[in-house]
Amino acid sequence: MSWVSDYQYTWLQKLALNALQISGHIPHHIAFVMDGNRRFARSKQLDKIEGHSRGFAKLADVLRWCLDMGIREVTTFAFSIENFKRSRDEVEGLFNLARDKFAKLLAEIERLDEHGIRIRVLGNIELLPADLQRLIASAMLRTEHNDKLFLNVAFAYTSRDEITQAVESVLQAEENPDGEDALLPTDINERLLEACLYTRHSPPPDLVFRTSGETRLSDFMMWQIKSSVLYFTQVLWPQITIWNFMAGIIAYQRDRSRIEDFRSEQRLHSAQLAKSSDFYSLRVQKFLHKLDANRRKLLIALASN
Ligand code: FPP
Ligand code: MG
Q1: Which of 41, 74, 123, 128 lies at a 20 to 30 A Cα distance from 157?
Q2: Which residues form the signal peptide (predicted)?
């Protein structure tokens, strides 16, 4: 299958993978910033787009490793809204790659079902060409019943845009003060905004893994990663090996205990905030239900365009 490779492990790799599963906590959710595709291409005298294509092939290996390790959720940064500023050729090349991969995904959908993989594209997909919107919406709808591995592809995404969209959703509900779903100003707090993000159904990443030696966060999941372990490696994305991947897991296992107290405090704070505000009121829950329904309606409209 093109999205999850048939990676063949050596016995030593299998042994190491098992040892990691036994020795420590396996992250529930990993977010990858797949950086370094063009530097890789340059170093091999390849075209940029070939670099991105090798990057996608690496993503398929990484998904296989995640599945076999028991990781339940993977988020990957595939196209930032900032990337629209790249040359027309590169942007079009990336869109063609995405068209090809989403079309293949739909053609081999039974294999995704077998693995129970649900695809969610996080981002402002209306910024994309209509045919790509259609493929993305179809992939999301077609896999929505799967629940073993959640694969979130951040495409046309930045955190600033995600937060802006969340605020807009809240404002739209406030605009209609006489409507039954109207929110009250006192309903608006960080718990509500968090529930309006594209990641509203995901726990925050436990580990953020960025390749290519860059130690920036590049406007990626800025809201969600306040207590995630950050792991940076020098290796360029298309060149990462299972050993680099496992080094990231070991770093997470080492650092997790230090941040776990902080994380449980955060969870408690969020739960208290939800309880002390009207987060569980019928009004707010109706609003969130409608938000989901509207997002799904949009996907159905895009898929049939
Ligand atoms: C960053 O490397 C990578 C990207 C901007 C694109 C990543 C996209 C893929 C791997 C394909 C994903 C497609 C789907 C459908 C999931 P860079 O271009 O910034 O390289 P550089 O840092 O060496 O310049
Ligand atoms: Mg880069």
Answers
A1: 41
A2: none
Q: Which of 17, 52, 59, 302 is catalytic?
A: 52
- C-alpha 35 – ligand 2 centre gap (Å): 5
Q: Show the DSSP H helices in 70-108 as ranges.
A: 88-107
Q: Global pTM?
A: 0.95
Maximum Cα interatomic distance, the chain, rounded to a whole number of Å = 65
Q: Tell how far the Cα of 250 is from the centroid of ligand 1, in angstroms.
A: 25
Q: Is 6 a catalytic residue?
A: no
> Using a 6 Å CB cutoff, which residues line ligand 1?
34-39, 52, 55-56, 59, 78, 83, 97-98, 101, 153, 212
Is the four-CA dihedral 39, 42, 48, 52 of positive or negative sign? negative
Beta strands in 123-204 (DSSP E): 149-157
pLDDT per residue as tens digits for the range 159-211? 999 999 999 999 987 666 566 668 888 888 999 999 999 999 999 999 999 99
Q: Cβ distance 94 to 171 under 8 Å?
A: no
| Main-chain phi, psi angles of 80, to 5 degrees | -85, 155
Q: What is the mean pLDDT of the chain?
A: 94
* Confidence check: pLDDT of 287 > 80: yes
Alpha carbon distance 31, 240 (integer Å): 15
Quickly list DSSP for 99-121.
HHHHHHHHHTHHHHHHHTEEEEE
Residue 176 pLDDT: 66
Q: Of residues 59, 105, 132, 149, which has the active-site annotation? A: 149
**For the chain, which domains are there?**
11-304 (3.40.1180.10)
Query: Do the Cβ atoms of 156 and 132 come closer than 8 Å?
Result: no
